[in-house]
Amino acid sequence: MLMRMVDLIEKKRDQKALSAEEITYIIEGYVAGDIPDYQMSSFLMAVYFNGMTHDETIALTRAILESGETIDLSAIDGIKVDKHSTGGVGDKTTLVLGPLVASCGAKFAKLSGRGLGHTGGTLDKLESIEGFNIDLDSETFVSQVNSINIAVAGQTAKLAPADKLLYALRDVTGTVPSIPLIASSVMSKKLASGADVIVLDVKIGEGAFMKTLESARELSRVMVDIGKAFDKKVIAFITEMSQPLGYAVGNKLEVIEAIRTLQGNGPEDLQMLCVELGSYLIHHAGLSDTLKDARKKIEASIQSLEASDCFRALLEHQGGQMPDLNDYIHAQHIVAVKSETSGYVKTLHALDIGLAAMRLGAGRAKKDDTIDPDVGIVLNKKLGDRVETGDVLAYVYNNLDDITDILRTVMDAFVLDETAPPVKPLIYEIIE
Ligand code: URA
Questions:
Q1: DSSP string, 159-225
Q2: Where in the chain is the domain with CATH 3.40.1030.10?
Q3: Inter-residue contact 131 to 321 (CB < 8 Å)
Q4: Which of 163, 179, 184, 186 is the pocket-test mutation for ligand 1 (most atoms within 8 Å of CB)?
Q5: Is the distance from CB of 159 to CB of 111 less than 8 angstroms?
Q6: Of 136, 323, 388, 395, which shows the fewest CB atoms inside 10 Å?
Q7: 84 catalytic per annotation
Q8: What is the per-residue pLDDT for 113?
Q9: 96 CB contacts (<8 Å, ≥6 apart)?
Q10: CA distances in angstroms from 153 to 8, 69, 281, listed in the order given
Q11: Does domain 5-65 have CATH number 1.20.970.10?
Q12: What CATH topology corresponds to 330-417?
């Protein structure tokens, strides 16, 4: 029977489930340009309000996945592992996690994206290293993973092209925060990238898509179930993102923090998260008998500097060099933001810190903005820390003439209180 988009919009509007054929018709029609934006927008809004069943979400994921190329990693020997984060401020986890698991024998074949808005992308961080090349053809990508266990390349436009079109439309139609739409968007790209074991870092809190534990749990469950339907092992970590991860926000600053973490001298939260995510990858890749053994392996690779050497190998294979940590940042000014009052840090608004870093030039407000790799913010205090009047809250690395407003934003991101706040867990739940 001839399908018409208007009938399918009405069906979703009236809370009826669509068949896999109907969903495929919608995605194929939209990518081909046969379904106009106004109909697709209406459909997305109907999904936003009425949700999707398990079968519909699987069908949507499959249709997005099949809209483009999939990466064939079968020429890589061993279990391929991958990781995705729903995005956070100061989130340099991939830079640490990749070398950690690769140095323990897992194959980390990673396709990454650029950052937009207050969250930075892994590619931007790696490209802040002079010479680092993210354009690898698939042969080079596969042979590099076979020889050093790790490669990080830019996601091409050919991977899940429907997702790019849909995401751009969702972004301007108020339909981003929908669980089936986020889950199918994330999972179609992960499945197209070809890994066997995938950890997902689902952030909650300010600046994250999911604001509550319940919604993060639901999103995680849906993504883990999509993994099952495609025979992949998916483990979702629900983690805290009300304050930045680690201390550094900004591209080169984050690279330095990542290297220090790989060498065992990083911030506790970042190190803990990477060790936990890594242990699950190592264990489910069959490289350890228990999670405890996996943790030991990872800690040993930090101790022996094998993890750091693996990062060096990654940089050198892709045209860069291990930076000299003492002579790497070349920002013209480093301004200390000093507290005007005393107390305990009760709130540290991650979103404001991320937006302030973006305004310094560390991130993009628009897709075509250029990034200044040397600028950013290094926090000196974090949640729960005691602050006296005059103490430095953060250092602002910048190349601008007037940053009065940005300094105020950084200052106001810290909310002090007389009593120390309760300690929040970094990892709330692990769903598999
Ligand atoms: N990240 C994605 O890749 N897709 C979404 O829809 C949201 C976050």
A1: BSHHHHHHHHHHHTTT-SS-HHHHHHHHHHHHHHTT-SEEEEEEEESTTSSB-SHHHHHHHHHHHHH
A2: 80-317
A3: yes
A4: 186
A5: yes
A6: 388
A7: yes
A8: 78
A9: 258, 261, 262, 266, 270, 271, 274
A10: 38, 15, 20
A11: yes
A12: Aldehyde Oxidoreductase; domain 3 (3.90.1170)
Q: What share of the chain is helix, strand, coil (3-state, %, to 5)?
A: 45, 15, 40
- Between helix 93-103 and helix 306-317 the angle, nearest 10°, is 110
- Mean pLDDT, each 10-residue run in order, the chain (432 residues): 94 98 98 97 98 98 94 91 90 96 97 73 92 93 96 89 93 92 95 94 86 95 98 97 94 97 97 98 98 98 98 98 93 97 97 94 84 96 98 98 97 97 94 97
Q: How far is the CA of 189 from the centre of ligand 1 (A)?
A: 10
Ligand 1: which atom is nearest the Cα of residue 189? 3
Q: Give 36's contacts (C-beta < 8 A, 6+ positions apart).
A: none
| Topology of the domain covering 80-317 | Pyrimidine Nucleoside Phosphorylase; Chain A, domain 2 (3.40.1030)
Return residue ranges of the chain for CATH 1.20.970.10.
Answer: 5-65
